[in-house]
Design goal:
The protein is built from six helices and no strands. By secondary structure, the chain is mainly alpha-helical. About 5% of the residues have low confidence.
Length: about 140
């Protein structure tokens, strides 16, 4: 079954329909907090997995990727992106992609004391702080 072609105006109307949350500002706030909390959980779970003893580098990489997947950060990101403004979506994506870089650094065998991990961790921290700033500004504008 083929979906009908939509005009740009129809696409914008569909998008805007989902960008207007049905709940209160508090509901929106919790959804955004859930995304950042999921990112934090993923990071901590990956750090713990990286610090464990593993039978091989492949097992270590798999365990780190599983920790990332089990955190729910992919799902939390998608839920937020569906209702977010473009600047919020961009900021959350930057934080998410920097977290994926942390994952790849750890999964490649570099430990939590390596310079590569510290650089990736710092980049992720910067991106997450920037996302928090954008989220706060966006929530403030919704309250006004």
């Amino acid at each position: 079954m083929r979906l009908p072609e939509l005009t740009p105006a129809e696409v914008a109307a569909e998008r805007d329909q989902f960008r207007r949350p049905c709940g209160t500002i508090a509901d929106v706030e919790w959804g955004r907090l859930d995304c950042l909390v999921a990112f934090r959980r993923a990071h901590e779970a990956m750090r713990l997995a990286a610090d464990e003893n593993h039978a091989s580098p492949q097992v270590r990489g798999t365990r780190i990727r599983q920790a990332f997947q089990a955190s729910g950060c992919d799902e939390a990101r998608e839920r937020l992106i569906l209702t977010a403004t473009e600047d919020v979506a961009t900021a959350i994506d930057a934080s998410y992609h920097s977290l994926r870089e942390v994952r790849e650094v750890l999964a490649s065998g570099r430990g939590i004391t390596s310079a590569d991990y510290h650089a990736a961790r710092e980049a992720h921290g910067d991106a997450t702080r920037a996302a928090r700033t954008v989220l706060r500004r966006d929530l403030s504008s919704q309250e006004a």
